[in-house]
Specification:
Order of helices and strands: HHHHHHHHEEHEE
Radius of gyration: 17 Å
Oligomer: single chain
Helix content: 55-70%
Number of helices: 9
Shape: globular
Strand order of the largest sheet: 1-2-3-4
Number of strands: 4
Low-confidence stretches: none
């Protein structure tokens, strides 16, 4: 079964939409089809660029698309509950156990605090997920009512994740409008994520570099 078939599965679309609606009610940024699609494509890009076979890259994209469905159950421990949900979905769709194992393990390890880059698939998913910081993830359009997560996401005018030609370095390059949010605020809420990204890069045989407004910070 392909990534495109997963994207178009009616039940999966309900789960992705409903999980995002739950987060919206709690005031979180967008975690719907846009985020799922971006994370899927970035996960596939990382694995393909590093020479993994097409099916592994496809499984990475599927993991990326499904990674946040656990928010439907609860934001707390959503990576683990999402892994359990993904297992049920993929089993229903007759995926082989070897592929289910890879996808479920990646989903269950994508979140900071509990996640560990236990495999190349998990490492690629971590990097893809944590690099999706952008202005249009902010639901609240009242600038004066922004809390720190709104400010940080809204301040990012450009986000780019690239692997160098030598395949030795993966770089997250951000442009931040400091009139909206400061670099310090970015680190205040994302430091743990950046540390996890560094570990994920190491799992893939890469160094991780963070650049904000053309300045290297990690």
């Amino acid at each position: 079964m392909t990534f495109e078939e997963i994207k178009n599965d009616s039940a999966i679309r309900v789960y992705v939409r409903s999980a995002d609606e739950s987060l919206a009610s709690l005031g979180y940024t967008e975690h719907s089809f846009a985020h799922a699609g971006i994370v899927a494509e970035k996960t596939g890009y990382i694995l393909k660029t590093l020479g993994y076979d097409e099916r592994t890259a496809e499984l990475g994209k599927i993991a990326g698309y499904l990674h946040d469905i656990g928010n439907l159950i609860n934001r707390v421990d959503h990576s683990q509950s999402g892994g359990v949900m993904a297992f049920r979905i993929l089993d229903r769709l007759c995926f082989p156990p070897e592929e289910i194992s890879q996808i479920v393990s990646a989903i269950g390890n994508h979140d900071e605090g509990t996640g560990v880059p236990v495999s190349p698939l998990a490492a690629a998913l971590i990097l893809a997920d944590k690099s999706d910081v952008r202005r249009n993830r902010v639901r609240n359009q009242k600038l004066l009512a922004f809390e720190i997560h709104d400010r940080v996401n809204y301040s990012v005018t450009k986000s780019e994740l690239k692997i160098n030609e030598a395949h030795t370095l993966i770089k997250l390059k951000l442009n931040i409008d400091t009139r909206v949010g400061s670099v310090m605020e970015y680190f205040e809420i994302f430091m743990e994520r950046m540390i996890l990204c560094r570990k994920a890069a190491k799992k893939l045989g890469l160094k991780f570099k963070l650049m904000i407004n053309e300045q290297q910070l990690i």
